[in-house]
Amino acid sequence: MRKYIPSDIEPKWQKKWQEDKLYAIDLDQAAKKYYLLVEFTYPSGDLHIGHWFAFAVPDVLGRMKRMQDYQVFFPNGFDAFGLPAENAAIARGVHPRDWTLSNIENMKQQFGLMGAIHDWENSVITCLPGYYKWNQWIFLKMLEKGIAYKGRALANWCPNCQTVLANENVEAGECWRCGTEVVQKEVEQWFLRITEYADRLLWSDNPTVDWPKPIREGQNNWIGRSEGVNLRFKVKDMDIHFEMFDSVPQTFMAQTFTVIAPEHPMVYELVKGTEHEKEVMGFVEKIKKKKMMNKFEIDRDIEGVFTGRYLEYTPTGKSIPIWVASFVIYEYGTGVVNSSAHDERDFAFAKKYDIPLHPVMFPKDPKEAEKVKNLEYCYHHAPDGILQEPEEFKGRRWEEVRHDIIDYIEKKRYGKRKIQYHLHDWSISRQRYWGAPIPIIYCDNCGTVPVPEEDLPVELPYKVDYTPKGKPPLATAEDWINVKCPNCGGEAKREAETMDTFVDSSWYFLRYLDNKNDTEIASSIRLKALMPVDIYFGGAEHTLGHTLYSRFFYKFLSDLGVLGNLGEEYAKKRVHHGVILGPDGSRMSKSRGNVVNPDEQIKEYGADAVRLYLCFIGPYDIVAPWNPGGLGGVYHFLQRVWLLQEKLGSQAEKLGFKDLNIMHKTIKKVTEDLENIKFNTAVAALMEWLNHLCRKEKVSKEEFRSFLLLLAPFAPHITEELWQILEAKYSIHQQSWPKFDNKHLQQDQVLVVIQVNGKVRDTLLIQNDILSNKEVVEKMAKKSEKIQKFLTGKTVKKTIYVPGKIINLVI
RNA sequence: GCUGGUGUGGUGGAAUGGUAUACACGUUCGCCUUAAGAGCGAAUGGCCUACAGCCGUGUGGGUUCGACUCCCACCACCAGCACCA
Fold it and tell me: Does the structure show a pLDDT above 60 at A245?
């Protein structure tokens, strides 16, 4: 018999499976489909162990599903636009397109070593015109529906990458790619009105799809819906009216001062020509500058300046001083805040600038002051004059009075109910080369003109000077940028900016279905056959970016009617994978030099062992450093599987009860564990069964057969090889998944634990037929010598018996 | 500060109210071998006077016949968000 040498068998089968298109399915008529999706890859050049973890482990699930007669669709592709390609290309003098496409070729080869059921026929590469044509098409549709628009706004600007960044791409004030400090800059940019979908993107407590709670909570917090009122005010002695958002309307009677954001245009109106102008505008400039320098650094210094103005506060008839304060966010709400000094920050501000507050608002007893955080205390304990609650609300609970107060405010016309979101519209303009062109033409006569649909795609020109110069590289591509206006035929220029790559990844899972379709995103036949995605694996880091954007896109496309009637969410189930860290315990990155390339390990132990080890290493959401030490263990396991051949009985051997019991138990365990994304315990169950088999003199064909079938999804190569020896038939991957039989799960006798006062003192083997008879079991338990010792001189007060598990004698 | 999560042997981890530490790594001992490796077998939570005992799942309390598991309070760590009125 040959030794188990993975390199002798793995390439051979990989080649054969590919030639035979063993894993291909018919996308037009997948009757019992299973769409398995893993977040596609950025083509950085080399596959590392993290890619294996992300793709090879879900492949195990996909393979089981195939054997359960599902037509499993497990596509793979590349998220191929984006800054790293451009930066790497600039550094090495290679064109981003060439760099990217050659990386993709290389990575496809490396993916091949995994032995996954990927079908590369249905791949997507987002930087190819056939793909991004549909980016542009969706953009035009959004423009048509008012979801895409051009606006001026302060944006996060990375001076190094020379581009605008989305909020989600700013990490602690730094660019997510290069780590350069981000500054604020006002620029014109294209936005997608995701806020229009804010309410529909919010998760209910009981969603119809199975997405993890952390992602749902995270998205809900990010959307940040808060319900309150917009109160209306007039500035004293001036014809200025404004609104302010208040999410705690319960305190509307308690207002003692007002603060405005420094950026607010009204500030100048208030102080123009007054003695306060110089001081206030100086303060505004100072804060603006500070924010420009490092907006995202947490600045606990709360600063402000009095405008000299007051507002007429209708509900209480009081005059309320108006201040400008550093901490007010212009972009949130109306940029004006009602300060009733019930929260710590407002209180600190008032104290710092001696703004008179009623002293009793804050209790002197520090323990009592703690309660102020709940606001409830304020509401019930504030003195007259500060918190004059309308009669009808006196003595009622804080939360329950909330809606009545909003009604009251509306009735009295002090203001209007308002729903405010933290979520901002999504800026998609990027001042870089390597992205999908935005299909817009600027004409002196006609203004902003969308590129007509029949002219799509607007192809990204190849020959462009893409080194950053402070303006978009495409603006320098003379023969590309200058075009005839599609409207009037006059001289016009194309939009020189490109799209955020998160646009590309917001709908790629639809394109997998129909990647060559030239007339629609995907045919309705295929959409109907394969959507929604059954399970979507990906990283927890995409909670606020990709998974929110893609839900938005799906809802938009659904509203547009291009999806048919597929429901609100694109994936029935979302599963987060963990992170394999570098051996040094930090995230793998080329710059740290701690990237683990699995090539060596595959050479030494084989793809099967690496796959198995990645399953076995821990729960699938584990975040842990790569420790190749355990690889030897799973390799050893495979070797013992290989050696089972020697134990194969010459003919059908009668299996004992124990053999059948462990076999069916393992079938049940592996099936259920894979279904529940518990790969590690599924492998452990196989190991236990193998330990049993190895202890036996002979192994029956039936056992070996079932064992190989269960192992096949984890280790597709070695099981295929052994299958040939066992069955002389191709292929194991076209066999049906074994089923367990309940009758073999029942044991004829059961181990029952005897406890005295909850402590284990003995065990007892009990025949099935007397298992349900409490009296008999109790008698047997009391007879036990070990138990006798604990019972002498004591009385048994109570006996608890859980049939088949435990008997507890209470003395 | 807010939100979500996690705390179990030397290590990765298992156990969702019923024998805590499955499965594996590592370590130690033995067999085999000229030797090494591989392979095979055994032991491996701590303590003790070491086979009739005690302690033990971050800490303290509670519920229960029985708690890693449920409840309350706290501590530590991880992740995300963070001046959101």
Answer: yes
ipTM: 0.94
Joined together, the tokens standing for residue A810 give 């209470």
Q: How far apart are CA A732 and CA A744, in angstroms?
A: 25
- Is strand B less than 7 A from the beta carbon of A695? yes
**Cβ atoms of A304 and A326 closer than 8 Å:** yes
Residues A418-457: tens digit of each pLDDT: 999 999 999 899 888 999 999 999 999 999 999 999 999 9
- A637 C-beta less than 7 Å away from strand B: yes
Nearest to A495 by CA among A80, A191, A189, A128: A189
**Any idea what DSSP says for residue A202?**
S
Q: How far is the CA of A171 from the C1' of B82 (A)?
A: 12
Please report which confidence band the pLDDT of residue A374 belongs to, taking 50, 70 and 90 as the band edges: very low
- CB of A319 closer than 8 Å to CB of A312: yes
Q: Which residue is nearest to nucleotide B85 (CA to C1')?
A: A337
Q: DSSP 3-state helix, strand, coil percentages of chain A (rounded to 5)? A: 45, 20, 40
C-beta separation of A36 from A649 below 8 A: no
From the C1' of B14, which residue's alpha carbon is nearest?
A681
* Tokens at A157, concatenated: 């600007």
Q: Is strand B within 7 Å of residue A250 (CB)?
A: no
Report if CB A753 to strand B is under 7 Å. Answer: yes
d(CA A491, CA A501): 30
So what's the pLDDT on residue A92? 87
Q: Give chain A residues 403-442 with Cβ within 7 A of strand B.
A: 420, 422
Residue A678, CA: closest nucleotide via C1'?
B14
Q: Is the CB of A328 under 7 A from strand B?
A: yes
With beta carbons less than 8 A apart as the criterion, state whether A459 and A502 touch.
no
Instruction: Decide: CB of A374 under 7 A of nucleic strand B.
Output: no
Q: Where is A760: in which H helix or E strand? A: strand A759-767
Amino acid at A120: W
**Mean pLDDT rounded to a whole number for chain A:** 87
Strands A749-756, A623-625: pairing is unpaired
Task: Please tell me whether the peptide bond between A713 and the residue prior to it is cis, using omega within 30 degrees of 0.
Answer: no
A221 Cβ contacts chain B strand, under 7 Å: yes
Helices (H), A466-582: 478-481, 501-504, 508-511, 524-530, 546-560
Residue A460, Ramachandran bin (φ over 0: left; ψ between -120 and 50: alpha; else beta):
beta
Residue tagged 């005897």 (tokens): A754
> In Å, what is the separation between the CA of A738 and the C1' of B10?
39
pLDDT digits (tens, 9 = 90+) for A556-579: 999 999 998 899 999 999 999 999
* Nearest nucleotide (C1') to alpha carbon of A295: B83
- Angle at A748 (CA atoms; ends A747, A752), nearest 5 degrees: 75
CB A689, CB A662: distance < 8 Å:
yes
CA gap A16, A730 in Å, rounded: 11
**Which bases in strand B are touched by protein, i.e. have an atom under 7 Å from a CB?**
3-5, 11-15, 18-20, 22-26, 38-41, 52-53, 65-67, 78-85
Protein residue closest via CA to C1' of B18: A806
Task: Look up tokens 């036990």; give the residue.
Answer: A784
Q: How far apart are CA A268 and CA A276, in angstroms?
A: 10
CA–CA separation, A197 and A175 (whole Å): 27
Cα A529 from Cα A511, distance rounded (Å): 14
Q: Which residue is nearest to nucleotide B64 (CA to C1')?
A: A758
Q: What is the pLDDT of residues A325-356, one digit of tens each?
A: 988 988 888 999 988 766 677 877 887 888 87
CA angle A561, A564, A570 (to 5 degrees): 100
Whether the beta carbon of A168 falls within 7 A of nucleic chain B: the reply is yes
Residue bearing the bigger pLDDT, A79 or A792: A79
Is A512:A122 a contact under the CB 8 Å cutoff? yes
Task: Give chain A's radius of gyration (CA, Å).
Answer: 34
